[in-house]
Write a structure and sequence with these properties.
149 residues; mainly alpha
Length: 149
C-alpha cells in the first residue's frame, strides 16, 4: 500500500489489535452466565466492540474520500457506499450495517444495551471484522495493480 494509504494501514493494524483483544474476551466468557456476572468483562467487550466498529467506519470514510465516492449521510451509509462501489461484497453488507446500528446503540442508547446480543456478537460475529479487513486490503491491492498497469 502506498503512502496515501498510511491512515488506512494504521487503522487496519488497530482493528487487528481489537479483534485479538475481543478473541481473548471471548475465551474468558465461557458461558453467558460467566459473561453476565462479570461487569468488568461486559464493559470491556462493549467498549472494544464500539471502538472496532469506529475503526471500520474510519477506514470506510477514508477510502470513500480517497476514491471520491458519494459522501455518506450517516454511519450506516458508509458501508452502503462501500457496497454500492463494490468495495465490500453484498453478502458482507448486512453484517456491516448491523455493526453500524450496534455502534450507534452503544454510543447513544447505552441504557438499553442487550447483554445477550453483545454476548452473541462476541461469540459469533468477530469474523465479520476480519472479513471486512481482508476485503479492504484486497480492494487496495486491486487498486494498486490497476494503477501500475
Amino acid at each position: 500500500m502506498g503512502d496515501v494509504d498510511d491512515i488506512i494501514a494504521s487503522r487496519l493494524k488497530l482493528l487487528a489489535e481489537y479483534v485479538d483483544e475481543l478473541q481473548g474476551y471471548r475465551e474468558r466468557a465461557t458461558s453467558f452466565r460467566v459473561y453476565l456476572n462479570n461487569k468488568m468483562l461486559r464493559r470491556a467487550v462493549e467498549r472494544a466492540l464500539q471502538v472496532a466498529a469506529e475503526v471500520c467506519l474510519d477506514i470506510g470514510r477514508r477510502l470513500i474520500a480517497l476514491e471520491g465516492f458519494r459522501y455518506p449521510e450517516h454511519n450506516r451509509d458508509v458501508f452502503q457506499v462501500l457496497g454500492e462501489e463494490e468495495v465490500v461484497p453484498q453478502e458482507l453488507l448486512p453484517a456491516l450495517l448491523d455493526m453500524a446500528r450496534f455502534r450507534n446503540l452503544i454510543v447513544h442508547d447505552y441504557a438499553r444495551i442487550d447483554d445477550a446480543k453483545v454476548y452473541a456478537i462476541l461469540k459469533k460475529r468477530l469474523g465479520d471484522l476480519d472479513q471486512y479487513a481482508r476485503t479492504i486490503v484486497a480492494y487496495l491491492e486491486r487498486r494498486e495493480r490497476e494503477k501500475a498497469s
